[in-house]
Amino acid sequence: MTRFRRPPLLDAVLACGLAVLGVAQLWYEAAGLASVVLMIGITLPVALRRIVPLAAVVVSWTVILLEGGLGADVTSQGHAAILALWITVYSVARYGPGAHPRAGLVWAMACVLGSVITTTGFDVPSMLLTTVITVGPWLAGYAVRRSESGRARAEDDAELARAEKERHARDAVDDERTRIAREVHDVLGHTLGLMVLQLGAAEQNLDTDPVRARAAVRSARQSGKAALAEVRYLIGLDGDVIAASAPPTSGLLDIPDLVEQNRRAGVDVTLELDLGATAAGGEPRDSTPSATDLAAYRIVQESLTNALRHGCGPVRVDLRRTPTEVTVAVHSAMQEPAGVGDRAAADVGGAGRRDAAHTGRGIIGMTERARSCGGTLTAGPVSNGFLVEARLPTWTTDER
Q: For residue 1, what pLDDT is reported?
C-alpha cells in the first residue's frame, strides 16, 4: 500500500493563496456558489504539483472542461485560476516521471480545446490562443528539466572523473611502494648475505690470518655502506644528500664488480659477459634502456643471493646482449659449499640449503622485474642444479 506523502509547505501555501485570491475575486463579482467550488477545484491541486504532478493537471484541467460545459471560458476565471493552470502544466513537464509529462500535456490540450469548442465552437483564433497559453508553460518546465538533468550528469561525470583520478593516484602509490619494497629486498637481501659470509670468514681467520680477517671486515663494511646509501635514496631518509647527488643506479657494466664482491666473499662464481660492440670502435654498447639495464643487474644479484642462501656450489653467470635483447642465465650447481664460507652459508640458508628450488619471494621479484621491461623469466631445478633464465628486450620506450 502506497503511503500518501504530505505536500511541501511552500506548495500548500501557494495553493491556498491562489484559492483565496480566486474566491475573493468571484465574491467581488458576485459569482455563484458553483463558481466558487470550481475555483477551488482549479487552484488547490497546485499543492500536489511536485508529489503527483499528473494528478494535479488532470484535476485542474478537468474542471476547465466542466466549466466549458457550463458556458464559461478559461479567461473568465480570473488571474488566480490561470496562474494555477500554468503552474500545474509547468510542474508536470518538470517533475513528472516517465511518460507523465507528455500525458499531462495531451490531457491539458484536450480539456482546454474541448472547453473552447463547447463554449464558442470551432473558433480558430481562440483555439490557437489557448494552445499557446497551454504549451508555453509546459515547454518552460521541460527546458528547466533538461537543464537540471544536464547539470546532474555533468556533476556525476565530474564525480566519476575525481574518483578515477583518486584511483589512479592510489594505484601509483601502490606501484611505487611495491617498487621500493622490491628494490630494498634486492639490496638488503644480497648485501646482508654477503656481509654474513664475509664476517664469517673474518671470524674464522681472526686468529690464524689477521690480515685476511681485516680485509673481510673492510669488504663487509664497504658493502654495508653502499647498501645503506642506496636504501636511503630509495626511501628518502636523507633529503639533502639525495637532492645533491645522483641516484645510485646499477646496470650491466656493474655486473663484473658484483661478481667480484661475491668471489671475495668466498662464492665460486664464473662470469661469461658479452655486451656486444659498436661497428667502428669496438666499445661496449650503451643503448640498453635503464629499465632493462637495472633488471638484468638485479636478476643476477638475486640469483647469486639465492645461491648463497641455499648453500649451492659453483655458480655460472652467462650474460649476453644483442641488438634486440639481453639474455641472462645463472646456473647454480647442487652441492654443499666447502671451505671458509661453510658456516656463514649455513647461517644464511639454514635448512633451505638442501632445496635450492625454494627461493621464496626472490623468484617472484625477478619475474616481475622481467615483466616490467617487457621481458620473460623462467626459473627452476635442472638435472645438475638450479637455472634462472631471462630474456629482456633492448628496444627503447619510443620503439615499443
A: 42
Give the lowest-confidence range in 25-34, 154-163, 232-241, 358-367: 232-241
Residue 284 main-chain phi, psi, to 5 deg? -60, 145
Q: Coil, helix or strand for 386?
A: strand
Q: Which domains does the chain have, with CATH numbers?
A: 9-122 (no CATH), 165-399 (3.30.565.10)
Kindly give, in sequence order, each residue whose CB lies less than 8 Å from that of residue 267, ignoring residues fewer than 6 positions away.
Answer: 197, 304, 307, 308, 315, 341
Q: How far apart are the first and last CA of the chain?
A: 65
Residue 378 phi, psi dihedral angles, 5° rounding:
-125, 145
Q: How buried is 1 (Cβ within 10 angstroms: 0-12 exposed, 13-18 middle, 19+ buried)? A: exposed
pLDDT of residue 295: 85
Computed from CA positions of residues 68, 75, 113, 141, in that sequence, does the dihedral angle turn out positive or negative?
Answer: negative
339 CB-contact burial (10 Å; exposed 0-12 / middle 13-18 / buried 19+): exposed
Does the reported pTM lie above 0.70?
no
Are 267 and 308 spatial neighbours (Cβ–Cβ below 8 Å)? yes
Neighbours of 240 (CB within 10 A): 7
- The three-state secondary structure class of 334 is coil
CA angle, residues 288, 293, 297, in degrees to nearest 5: 150
Per-residue pLDDT band at 234 (split at 50, 70, 90): low
- % of the chain with per-residue pLDDT over 90: 10
